[in-house]
From TrEMBL:
Keywords for the protein's UniProt record, in alphabetical order: Carbohydrate metabolism, Isomerase, NAD
Gene Ontology biological process: galactose metabolic process
Gene Ontology MF annotations: UDP-glucose 4-epimerase activity
Cofactor field: NAD(+)
Protein name: UDP-glucose 4-epimerase
Record flagged with keyword Cytoplasm: no
Record's subunit section: Homodimer.
Catalyzed reactions per annotation: UDP-alpha-D-glucose = UDP-alpha-D-galactose
EC number: 5.1.3.2
Domain of life per record: Bacteria
Pathways involved: Carbohydrate metabolism; galactose metabolism
InterPro entries per the UniProt record, alphabetical: NAD(P)-bd_dom, NAD(P)-bd_dom_sf, UDP_G4E
GO CC annotations, alphabetized: cytosol
Amino acid sequence: MRVLVTGGAGYIGSHTLVELLGQAHEVQVIDNFDNSSPEVLSRVRKLTNGDMSFAEGDVRDDGFLRSVFEDFQPDQVVHFAGLKAVGESMEKPLEYYDVNVRGTMAILRAMDSVGCRKIVFSSSATVYGEPVYLPYDEDHPVAPESVYGRTKMIAEHIIGDWAQANGGTAVLLRYFNPVGAHSSATIGEHPQGVPNNLMPFVAQVASGKRERLSIFGDDYDTPDGTGRRDYIHVVDLACAHVAAVNYAHGNTGTRHFNVGTGQSYSVREMVAAFEKASGREIPCVVTPRRKGDIAEMKADASRAKHEMGWEAKLGLADMAASTWEWQSNNPDGYEK
Ligand SMILES: O=c1ccn([C@@H]2O[C@H](COP(=O)(O)OP(=O)(O)O[C@H]3O[C@H](CO)[C@H](O)[C@H](O)[C@H]3O)[C@@H](O)[C@H]2O)c(=O)[nH]1
């Protein structure tokens, strides 16, 4: 299939390119390198020997999109491009709505211009908000607590309405907590500045870049008091996109899928796994809870298994080991 990937130079996008090229799909990438680097794409090319086309530009630029779509004539779009920092979204709401919501609308319009009717969308488990029950299934009420989460929820609705109106296909993937890196240690996550997320922060403590991890609260109602999340290996997550592209090929309508493992781990369990993988001690200090954090998030991922034939295969040890391999081989990320 001819698959157009937006945000292909990002963390999840780049791992997905590797898996799509591995399945011999024809791939066109667009990215504006807002939070990524051209080096990512050259590493993906080396890794796969796969050929892909690339165009640099913004998903809000209708003229740019139209010309790329007309040239490539995609069968499907996998739409990753967007802003993703929860805290920043509360400070810059209009920017988040602009990129994540208006950008999604521009993509749908460009798809209309060439009659492309199938999209796989990068949504987030954060749309669920405070759990009414756990594990979350896809019918759990949606009540995001951040601007970021609301942009994902609104984009889901817009894509669903678009699919409904034109007999199209919308596969909406709600990711849990992506971690880890490709086994080659040539692509991985490289956050700019101080990492917000647990694993990149832990990796930087292990490598000596940061002194210690702050554990945000150990008084949650969990066995060891620290927050629990459903961490999913980014390579498993990338494979879920290949499954979603295949699913979209054979189906119409809108379908939501949780993409998680169904298993949660605490902050302390993640730190212990990382210490084991790296052979280094991670100094920790307990600080007050982070605003907006909840005790536990966990997916019911059975729909993805039954309907897309996808399930996570890689466990905690792989997540920790690959994060460490990536971090220790690329202490400055993609900077040479
Ligand atoms: O320095 C840190 C960073 C995190 N944590 C804790 O580690 C856990 C995971 O935190 P992350 O920031 O890594 O991930 P979140 O679950 O907060 O959020 C992530 O997963 C969500 C979906 O589950 C959304 O997708 C969101 O965008 C994404 O950042 C939480 O208990 C958090 O309190 C710490 O103790 N110290």
